[in-house]
Amino acid sequence: VLPGRESYRVLDRAGTVLLDRPDDGTGERPEVSRGELRQLLLDSLPDGVVHWGRKVSKVQAVGEGRHELRFADGATALTSVLIGADGAWSRVRPLLSGAIPRYIGFTSVETFLFDGDTRHRATAEAVGAGSLFALAPGQGFLAHRERGGTLHAYVQLKKPWDWLADGASVSAQVAAEFAGWALELTALITDSDTAPVTRPLYTLPAGHRWARIPGVTLIGDAAHLAPPNGEGANLAMLDGDEVVSLLGYCVVAANSKAYGGGMFIAPDASLEDGLLDVLTIAEMPKPRFLRLLPTVFSGRHLLVPEVSVRRAREIRVSADRPFTMYADGDPISDLPATVRALPRAVRVIVPA
Fold first, then answer.
1. Does this model's pTM top 0.70?
2. Torsion angle of the four alpha carbons 64, 70, 75, 79, in this order, in degrees rounded to the nearest 10
3. CB neighbours (10 Å) of residue 78?
4. Of 28, 91, 241, 272, which sees the most CB atoms within 10 A?
5. Within 13 Å of residue 94, how many CA atoms lie on the same side as its CB?
6. Residue-wise over 164-202: b if at least 16 C-beta within 10 A, else e?
C-alpha cells in the first residue's frame, strides 16, 4: 500500500487548484501499484501454474462440460473447467454470449513521467501526493503518483475511434487538442518518458448476463467490461474470489461448529457473526479421503491441503450434473441453490 495516495486534487485548464483534499488516514480506498499487486499474486502460486506466451486463438466445446483451447503456436489443451478472464475481446465469451463491446466515444492515451519530483517538478507539484483530475467538456487529464515519483497519466478525449491520423505523432496530435491549457498539465503528454499508448474505451451492455453452460464462465472485463471507474481491478479480484470451481467431494455451508453426532466440520464457525463458514474438499485419491475422514471429529481436517474454508453471508452452489443438497442428513433441495445466513431468524426461550 502506498501511503498518502488517497489524497486528490481538482484543477481547471489554467492549472488553478479548485479542490485539494489531503489523505487524512480515514479513507477506504488504499492505493496499490497494479504491477506490485500482480507480482504478489504470482508469487503466491506454485511454479509452472502460469504459462506465459500462450495466446489463445480458438476455443470450442467438445461435450460433457469440456472445452478445447487452441493456441497460436498450434498446441491444444483440454479443460474440465474453463474461466474466461481474457479481457474485453475475450475468446471465451462467444461460448456464452453474443454480446460485442461497443465504443463509448472516448479514447484514453496513457503516458508515464519518471522521477517526477526531479525531472518534471512543475507537473509533479500539480499532481500532488495522490491523484489529479483536470477535466473540461469532452477532454481532460487523470493522473496519479506511483512509487519512486512516477507520474502515471490518462489523457481522455471525446473523439471517433479512428480519429488519429496515420503516421503522425500521437503526442503532437493529442497535445494540439489541449492548446491553451497550463504547461504543467500538457507536459503529461509532451514530456512522457514512454511512447503514448492509445486505448479506445469500450463497454458491454449494462447488466450483461448469460445462460449457464456447464464447464465455462467469465470474470473481469470478459464478463462486465465498463468505462474506467476506478473499480475494474477491484471487481476482477472479487470475481476471482467468488468463482470457486470445485472438483472433489463436497461443499459445506455451516453456521455452527458441528453436525452429524460430533463431526466438527467447521470448528471456527460462530452462530453470532452472521456468516457462513464455507468449506470445500477438493479432489484427492479415494483411499486418502477415507484415511482422513476421521479427522473431522477433532477438526484436524482443516490442516489438509485439499480443504479450504471461506466466509460469506450468502453462497450459490451449482453443479454440472444433477445433485441434491442435504441439511444434516436430510435432503432439502436440488442444485442450483442459494444458502444465506439470516440474522436473528430463530427465537429462543432461555431461563430468566
1. no
2. -30
3. 10
4. 91
5. 9
6. beeeeebbebbbebbeebbebbbbbbebbeeebebebbb
3-class DSSP state of 12 = coil
Please name the residue that has the C-alpha cell 496519479: 144
Place of cell 430468566: 352
Measured CA to CA, the distance from residue 290 to residue 41 in angstroms comes to: 33
Q: What is the pLDDT of residues 295-307, one digit of tens each?
A: 999 999 988 877 8
Phi, psi of 38 (to 5 degrees): -60, -40
Identify the pLDDT of residue 57. Answer: 93
Q: Per DSSP, which regions of the chain are E strands?
A: 8-11, 17-21, 56-63, 66-71, 76-79, 82-84, 102-113, 131-136, 139-145, 151-158, 197-203, 216-218, 248-254, 276-282, 307-312, 314-317, 324-327, 330-334, 337-340
Q: Nearest Cα to 180, choosing from 13, 9, 1?
A: 13
- Number of other residues whose CB lies within 10 A of the CB of residue 224: 19
Phi–psi pair at 54, nearest 5 degrees:
-105, 80
